[in-house]
Amino acid sequence: MKLLYSLTSPYARKVRIVAAEKHISIDLELVVLADPDCPVPLHNPLGKIPVLIMDDGESLYDSSVIVDYLDQRTPVSHLVPQDTKSKFQVKRWESLADGVCDAGVAVMIEQRRPENLQDPSWIAKQWTKVERGLQVLNDDLGQNKFCVADTFSLADIALVCVLGYLNLRFGNKLDLDKNYPNLARVNQALASRPSIAETVPPQA
Ligand SMILES: N[C@@H](CCC(=O)N[C@@H](CS)C(=O)NCC(=O)O)C(=O)O
């Protein structure tokens, strides 16, 4: 199996962390989406990463499908709980964390356009999704040690990935410690876990 990825993609990071936690070995192929000969569209018509290319040439996307596949591939350290209630709580966490990533990515792309072409109302709308999403996650987490059911799961992984991405692109603009202290606490507690420490996106 081979994963097409970039070092800064929060969605690809989620897959890399899940693979590490499950002890599943995957070849990694760094891609640059802007390259004219980038292989991604050959495997995902949407042209997005991550893409998992299976040994028979079939591909899997998007990240939530890939992590589901990896989690079901081996019973080692299930990251999506088996019981229905916790399972859908974890999936909702993943969905909201990924959705906050989507909004953050939209802001970053708009801010990279020439200033006179940027739409401040679009940026504000997307940024509101980021703040609203983080607030709900922060409230949901409360004083718990982990996001769902008192155990490490895909929800914690998705949280770490969105916070890592927002920190990379927007620095301390969110002031996590002050505004989302529950998220900041869990993020800090998980930072030294090897699968997480080894996949921190580079600042460059
Ligand atoms: N829902 C997708 C989102 C993937 C995504 O947006 N990836 C970004 C990189 S971080 C991308 O490939 N963007 C290129 C594009 O949208 O053309 C997933 O979870 O895999």
Explain this structure.
With 204 residues, the protein is an alpha+beta fold. The protein has two domains: 2-73, 3-Layer(aba) Sandwich (Glutaredoxin), CATH 3.40.30.10; 84-197, Up-down Bundle (Glutathione S-transferase Yfyf (Class Pi), Chain A, domain 2). The protein is 55% helix and 6% strand. It has nine helices and four strands; from the N terminus they run E-H-E-H-E-E-H-H-H-H-H-H-H. The protein has helices at 10-21, 40-43, 63-73, 84-111, 120-141, 154-170, 176-179, 181-190, 194-197; strands spanning 2-5, 27-30, 51-53, 59-60. Strands 2-1-3-4 form a four-stranded mixed β-sheet. A hairpin with a 5-residue loop joins strand 3 (51-53) and strand 4 (59-60). Helix 4 (84-111) packs parallel to helix 6 (154-170) and helix 6 (154-170) crosses helix 8 (181-190). The protein is globular, with a radius of gyration of 17 Å. The two termini are 28 Å apart. Residues 9, 11, 33, 47-50, 62-64, 98, 105 line the site of glutathione (GSH).
Q: How are the strands of the biggest sheet laid out side by side?
A: 2-1-3-4
CATH class of the largest domain: Mainly Alpha
Q: Count of DSSP E strands?
A: 4
Total tally of structural domains? 2
CATH architecture verdict of the largest domain: Up-down Bundle
Order of helices and strands: EHEHEEHHHHHHH
Question: Helix proportion of residues, in percent?
Answer: 40-55%
Could you tell me the CATH topology label of the largest domain: Glutathione S-transferase Yfyf (Class Pi), Chain A, domain 2
Major sheet: 4 strands, mixed
Q: What integer is the average pLDDT?
A: 97
Rg, alpha carbons: 17 Å
Structural shape = globular
Q: Termini, distance in Å? A: 28 Å
Strand content: 5-15%
Tally of separate helices: 9
Unreliable runs, pLDDT <50, ≥5 residues? none
Structural class: alpha+beta
Distinct small-molecule ligands in the complex:
glutathione
Domain GST C-terminal: 83-204
Domain GST N-terminal: 1-78
Pfam families: GST_C_2, GST_N_3
GO molecular function: glutathione transferase activity; maleylacetoacetate isomerase activity
